[in-house]
Amino acid sequence: MLAAACALVWGTADFFGGKASQRANALAVTVVAQILGLPVLVLGLLLVPGEPHAADLAWGAAAGVAGFLGLFLLYRALAGGAMAVVAPVTAVTAALVPIGVGLVVDRWPGVLALAGAGCAVVAIGLVSLGSRQGPARVAPAMIGQALLAGTMFGIFTSLLGQSTAESGMWPLAGVRVTSIGVGVLLMLKMGVSLRLPRQVLPLALAAGALDIAANGFYVAAAARGHLSVVAPIASLYPASTVLLALVVDRERLQLVQVAGLGLAATALVLASS
After folding, report:
1. Do residues 98 and 120 touch, judged by C-beta distance below 8 A?
2. Rounded to whole angstroms, how far apart are CA atoms 218 and 210?
3. Disulfide check for 130: which of 72, 84, 92, 185 has CB 3.0–4.6 Å away?
4. Does residue 251 register a pLDDT over 60?
5. Contact at 8 Å (CB) between 76 and 26?
6. Alpha-carbon torsion angle 228, 214, 84, 180, nearest 10
7. For residue 83, which of 38, 162, 160, 22 has the smallest C-alpha distance?
8. What was the pLDDT predicted at 134?
9. What does the pLDDT read at residue 133?
10. What is the average pLDDT score of the chain?
11. CA-CA distances (angstroms) from residue 5 to 68, 146, 253?
12. pLDDT at residue 219 above 70?
């Protein structure tokens, strides 16, 4: 349930981040969103009991580098408009990496739980398939960005999944320190300004606040469950993005998306068995 909550909130954060990146520089949106999400992190540190162990902070710091790069690449790819291609490629790649890591470094989960993880991977692709008006050409560079973003997300979830339950939300402090630091360095090198248009700030705020909340759900889930099951369930985030597009942008669900949502529900039941 924690992983499912993570997927719901992550997908919502990506919806707002993608919207903001269509109206402003993706790098600036990523960094500003990370900064605006800091109050949510402070609230989590105060409300969730935990001790800041050095090892957990280090796992979080390493994960923060991969997470920032993945988020930047995702926002940049989403800004290109080919979400029906970018979302499944990124999400499936993000799910496959920690599945492999979890099977190597952790004990094997039950057969039903592993079947649920497999269903989640298939569901990710199905729910991300949307209608497109006319023929759409996707540049190889965009596919490369989606693959790299998914790989970075997979590394992020794998590293963050090594933290312990006793650390509470403290690993996320390590995540934010390095992610914001890397972002600011990239902005200085590329000459990008932190200033965003006024109408973009609420979108960046929503993206940043929800992203850190989703990270909190993931840390809690990964500390209590098997990485090869938790990660693919958390990677079901395109489902909430699709549902938001349905409600906000008045898009229509395709039959394959309905099947994907049903398979996602099946994956959650199997994974919790």
Report:
1. no
2. 12
3. 84
4. no
5. yes
6. -110
7. 22
8. 40
9. 43
10. 82
11. 21, 23, 22
12. yes
Taking CA atoms, 14 is separated from 80, 94, 118, 127, 188, in Å, by: 14, 14, 23, 15, 25
Yes or no: say if 75 and 16 are a contact pair by the CB < 8 Å rule. no
CA distance 98 to 236: 14
DSSP state, residue 251: P
Length of the chain: 273
Taking the C-alpha atoms of residue 115 and residue 71, their distance in angstroms, rounded to an integer, is: 28
Quick check: helix, strand or coil at residue 25?
coil
For residues 95 and 120, the answer to whether their CB atoms sit within 8 Å is: yes
Alpha helix (H) residue ranges in the chain: 2-21, 26-36, 38-47, 54-78, 83-105, 111-127, 140-160, 170-190, 201-224, 227-234, 238-248, 255-271
- The answer to whether 101 touches 227, Cβ cutoff 8 Å, is yes
Residue linked to tokens 């039903």: 112
What does the alpha-carbon distance between residue 143 and residue 77 come to, in Å, rounded to a whole number? 8
Task: Look at phi and psi of residue 139 and say left if phi exceeds 0, alpha if psi is from -120 to 50, else beta.
Answer: beta
Residue-wise DSSP of 201-240: HHHHHHHHHHHHHHHHHHHHHHHHS-HHHHHHHHTTTHHH
With beta carbons less than 8 A apart as the criterion, state whether 155 and 44 touch: no
Asked whether residue 178 carries a pLDDT value surpassing 80, the answer given is: yes
With beta carbons less than 8 A apart as the criterion, state whether 216 and 169 touch: yes
Is the pLDDT at 127 greater than 60? The verdict is yes
**CA dist 198 → 75, 103, 206 (Å):** 19, 46, 14
The pTM of the full predicted model, rounded to 2 decimals, is 0.78
